[in-house]
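Predict the 3D structure for this chain.
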Amino acid sequence: MMPDTMAPGARARPMLFGSATALMMLLAPQAASAVELNLTFLANEQDEEYDAAQVFKNYVENRTGGEVSVNIYVGAQLCGSANECFESIRSGVLDIYTATAGGTSAVYPPVQGMDIPYMLAGDRVAELTLKDPEFNRFIREKVLEASGGGFLMLSMTQTGGWRNFANTQREIRSPADVEGLRFRTIESEIQQRLVEEMGGSPTPVPWLEVYTALQTGVVDGSKNSISDIVNANLNEQLKYLTLDGHAYMASMWFMGKQKFDSLTPDQQQVVLDGAALMSSVQFGIQPRKELEAFKEWIDSGGEIYTPTEEEMGQFRAAAEPIRDWYLEELGEDGQEFLDAFEAAIARAEKQVEESRASAMQ
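Done. Predicted structure below.
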């Protein structure tokens, strides 16, 4: 809606032109400069992406004085999967969308290397890795190139924290307990291979259909964070949760490059700063949401198992072939990505170690 720019007293002044002509003259400058950005994510209002989107909307609209407005579409209103959402950006229906590494691999396949299991050691290392400026620049350039200049990564953050095994059938204490279970995955071969390596059956199911798939027995479990599980009410179906933390759920906010280039330099800066703020919101709010999610999981009768270090060794060993497959499948491009990813991890680990050492002196 166009903001009312007239002072209350101005309405009593006589118009020098016909009312319609005068109104057009008053509104024309605003209409010419108004820009709308359509933003979407596939989760619901309980997700941290909703909080981040609200902050982004408020920041962009205020900092541009209303020159740029942000329309937020929750769930599958504009698109229902990563492939559909990226196509919607290309067609101009959608402007901003957030995708996981698995979803982004539809555009730039090597990025799925971020889902190679058990590569990140703890929350501090994970957060610093995803915030690493050099790593962000690397992914931004690669995705832009792979999309033919179509998609600009505005910022990288996380969406839900750690992926864990959750199922309806039994407690999982080791990879052997996965055998025979059907786990929902996305269309990501790395995630599918993790289930296969442990003897399970990967079953791709769109996120918005997971509840029904669990309810009808199409799948026995899912590999999601506790926040995502509870936000989607999957705790009504799932009973057993194993905190193996096999992957940290990266999230990348993308914008159509053509739409970004259509903004003025000042507007572009505001959008980029707002996207950085979105990233901080998602990192910061997730731990708080997990507290509520774990409580709701327990209240709904769910059980939680934390593997011992010996059992974690078995999980890591079972997942080792996935790295080899990744490099064989993606060759030099995969090696280039892993080099960049592991360099960012090493920088993060060093920073955490130095911080701890300084505090413990």
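The radius of gyration is 23 Å.
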